[in-house]
Amino acid sequence: MALATGCTATIGGNNAGGGGAGTGTGIGTGAGTGVGTGSAGTGTTTGTAGSGSVIPLPPPGTCVPGIPATTQIPRMMNQQYENVVRDLLGVTDLGGAAVSSVLYGDFQGPMTAPAWSIYQDTATKIAAQVMAGANKSMFISCDPAAAGCLQTTVQTFGRKAFRRALTTDEVSSFMALNSLTPAGTPAQVAEAILAAFLESPSFLLLPELNTTAVTATNGPAIQLSPQEVATRLSFLLWGSVPDDTLNAAADANQLSTADQILTQATRMIAVRAKTGPMVSAFHDNWAQWNNQSGHWFQFDHDPAKYPTYLPAQKTTFKAEMNSFWEEVAFTQGSFQDLLLSNVAFVNQDNAAIYGLDPTQYPAAPAMTKVSLDSTTTPRPGFLTRAAFLSSYSGYSSTSPILRGAFMSIWLLSVNPGAPDPSFTKATVSGTFPTEKAYVEALTMQMQPCKGCHSVFNPLGFVMESYDGIGKWQTTDLLGGAIDASVTTNTIDFGDGSAPRSITNPVDLMKGIAALPKAQALYAQAWVSFATGRDPNGNDQCIVNQMSTKLAGGTSYPILTMLSDLTQSESFRLRVQATP
User: Fold this and answer.
1) How far apart are CA 309 and CA 300, in angstroms?
2) pTM of the model
3) Domain boundaries, the chain
């Protein structure tokens, strides 16, 4: 199938009432992705965050045994910083704003002067808030004026903040704040010490400086210290600092083997309050919420055509999706369940979209877990939730192109390349009974469009059973009966039946869930997210192992995938990066 050129088109034309606002598929091909939470605390999945459009992860490649080179000094990302000050100091906001929102935007590379200034200002504000608040004892539990109190505080808090014991020189440097002229009160000195901790490079960075040489399976390597392993583990699973139990295991040298690490990983994963948000963050990233060219929650809909739609529903849509990701994972669900589960979370904002009586459900932001219809009006997986269906639609219509392009590009890694500018203003005249008929006429009239849209369109057409805000429909807004049946080469069940006939969303989701390529891409996304590295041959070995297990379907739960990420040699070893 020809995918070298792409096309976009004005969705609207002369079709009365048909088509949505905007042009083309909106699928970008530039570099950059949203930020992930790396095993060392930082990273992106395929490029630099915020640098424009996002390209999909490349198809899985060849395994090259060995340990990939990694940075030794990653910096905490903003959400991690927020989690850390919450866990260390009980700080959940600054002046009513989320801590992560007051920091400089996430970035890679050297520290900048504006970012450093904001870190200093934020540290000063947090220190003042802690010393004047109810959580003061989380930093200092003795009288600052008492003999030995400040030094004990520096050593005990420093062990948690730096994720390791402080050196003698470091203790002395913090204690020097008690010898300045003019002298501050003991409480002022304690506040200054806390601020100094929060702006220290050893706090903001997650360094891996151990130099113990070992022999790995494929050559020489450097063993991470137990404290460095603990940091990798806690930032992978919780996006935050180790707790007391993990610190104790590190200090007792109980994190040197895969089994020891697995013991702690299993314990930590079970703490849903901490692991759950990380699981949701991964799936938000996987589903392209961070993609600046994505359509999630970006656009509104015509109230004349969709009277039950309100812009405020977007908040509920986001909350529902994050609850869905977490619920699937913590009920031992697998990749396949993300595409097939009929679990949903509803309130008065979104209940009607699912055919439920809003008066029977709580007002936002509360939500109730329900099981949606799996037969008459089926709702298999996240692609049939209002968040996706409403986001990937036009202002006054559905958008088979957007829905199909999302599935093709982000779930199957079928990348058509940049659109051909010569075909970006195509229009079609006439009256069409359905959006499907209109889009077929629009995109199939010129040869350069057919390559892309022969892939995108069929997948999107299957989703025409859901209207522009996600409600089930049997009649198109244009008046014609919905026909969701298609024939496509994109979904191959591996049974020799391609091209494949698909007649409903359930069969489509089963097809995607069963595709080895889709499974491998999901595994690859987890590995890239967890390590903060672009896909590479060394990590591909882990991807391959996970992909093999994923082929077993529900026998490989998401949480088991998460624990498996901690079991490779590359999780507890590093190699010297080539200059």
Assistant:
1) 8
2) 0.87
3) 78-204, 212-271
